[in-house]
Write a structure and sequence with these properties.
The structure is a single chain. The chain has an 8-stranded mixed β-sheet, with helices on one face. A 7-stranded mixed β-sheet has the order 5-4-3-2-15-16-17. Helix 2 packs parallel to helix 3 and helix 6 runs parallel beside helix 9. It is globular. The chain is α/β, with parallel strands linked by helices. Strand 4, helix 4 and strand 5 form a beta-alpha-beta unit. The protein contains 9 helices and 17 strands. About 25% of the residues lie in helices and about 20% in strands. It has a single domain, classed as Purple Acid Phosphatase, chain A, domain 2 (4-Layer Sandwich).
């Protein structure tokens, strides 16, 4: 009995140490983390895309949004920002007339969270696309459709912000950005909702000339996605979603030290009662959520989207939020680049293994500089102590086009 207890304590200690290390910066051996030429000068810039996710917390300091504004201010006329979902925690923006708890100021708080983001965008004067996340959809709840529509209505009153795909619809929304990129936006929560209410009379494509979605099924969405990718021609495809197709954070089965030892803090933040391994075991093997890569519908969605991306003529890029970290993966077999930029307001531990190019659990965002010769440079920016710092840079080379 004593030996078993010692073994359990040793395993717990090693697990905790590993989980703590998961917040550290990792760069794949052989990678050069600095690439000054990846930042395009004004004369070499075709378009700049800012990728920032999970910004939906109220924070007067707004450290990640401050870094966002700095990047947007470099050349706002040739910049587009994509907010990668979970724009309002914890359950989106209550719809007008929705019955709410009279003892809370949920609607007022949610509106302030959205407005602080819109105000930064308007001051920067940069076009911004808001992708819906599961928290915007009432945390995947029954009131989600109304709350998504309420958020879209607020954004519609701004000069520079818009929700794509249109409220309650899956997309794909297609935007050709500059001369070299086709930006495609999907609402992955729509694809995961199954029996929960969602808009069904939807269109897809260029917002100025959209086509009716041929059916109310996920299969119709994937068929439209294949068509959108096929129509990209020589443009690089940048697909933006809320849910990542690849991650080594909690949604990919990697958990923090607190998750391993104090799982009841998910019920109440003060409930530090040690119940080792309960939460990871339940979430990984027993109660599988479709918000995680291990969920059945999530697996089907990832397989369908990746199959579509593999048909692209050049190496596609997919950028997502959902996971509160900064991660970069490549898949040389498929030439797909995977970016996770979901630490606009929160951070969470993340691991690494084969295919991981870079990872860091820190507040921050990512920037893609599209150069006038078509090359795309990635910059990862960490925010801390009132300052921002570029901590990783590299070319997202087009392997199918012969490299860069």
């Amino acid at each position: 009995m004593r030996n078993r207890l010692c073994a359990l304590l040793l395993a717990s200690a090693l697990t905790v140490l590993g989980a703590c290390a998961d917040r550290a910066l990792y760069v794949r051996p052989g990678e050069v983390p600095s690439c000054p030429e990846c930042l395009a000068t004004s004369s070499r810039l075709d378009q700049r895309l800012i990728l920032i996710g999970d910004t939906g917390e109220l924070d007067d300091a707004q450290p990640a949004l401050a870094a966002f504004a700095s990047e947007a201010g470099r050349d706002p006329g040739r910049t587009i920002a994509v907010f990668l979902g979970d724009n309002i925690y914890p359950r989106g923006l209550p719809a007008p007339g929705e019955v709410a708890d009279p003892d809370t100021d949920e609607a007022e708080q949610a509106l302030r969270i959205l407005q602080q983001q819109v105000e930064v965008i308007e001051r920067a004067g940069v076009r911004s696309v808001f992708v819906p996340g599961n928290h915007d959809w009432d945390r995947s709840g029954v009131r989600g459709l109304g709350r998504i529509q309420a958020q879209a209505d607020v954004l519609a009153s701004s000069k520079n912000a818009v929700m794509y795909p249109p409220a309650g619809c899956p997309g794909p929304t297609v935007l050709d950005v500059g001369d070299y990129v086709r930006l495609i936006v999907l609402d992955t929560e729509w694809l995961l909702r199954d029996e929960l209410p969602k808009e069904t009379s939807c269109t897809w494509g260029d917002p100025a000339a959209s086509d009716p979605l041929a059916g109310e099924t996920n299969a119709a969405v994937y068929a439209a996605l294949n068509e959108a990718i096929a129509g990209a021609g020589t443009r690089r495809v940048l697909l933006t979603t809320h849910h990542p197709l690849k991650t080594l954070g909690s949604h990919g089965g990697r958990y923090s030290a607190k998750d391993y030892l104090f799982p009841l803090t998910h019920v109440a933040s003060w409930l530090y009662l040690p119940v080792p391994f309960l939460y990871p075991a339940l979430r990984t093997w027993i109660v599988r959520s479709d918000q995680d890569l291990g969920g059945g519908r999530n697996q089907q969605m990832v397989a369908s989207i990746e199959a579509a991306l593999r048909t692209a003529d050049s190496s596609p890029i997919v950028a997502s939020g959902h996971e509160h970290s900064l991660q970069v993966f490549d898949d040389p077999a498929d030439s797909i680049w995977y970016l996770v930029s979901g630490s606009g307001a929160k951070t969470e531990a993340t691991g690494h293994r084969g295919g991981t190019v870079f990872k860091r659990a820190a507040l921050g965002l990512m920037v893609l500089d599209v150069h006038t010769d078509g090359r795309i440079g990635l910059r990862v920016i960490e925010v801390g102590d009132g300052e921002s710092e570029t901590i990783f840079e590299r070319w997202l080379d087009d392997r199918r086009g012969g490299g860069e």
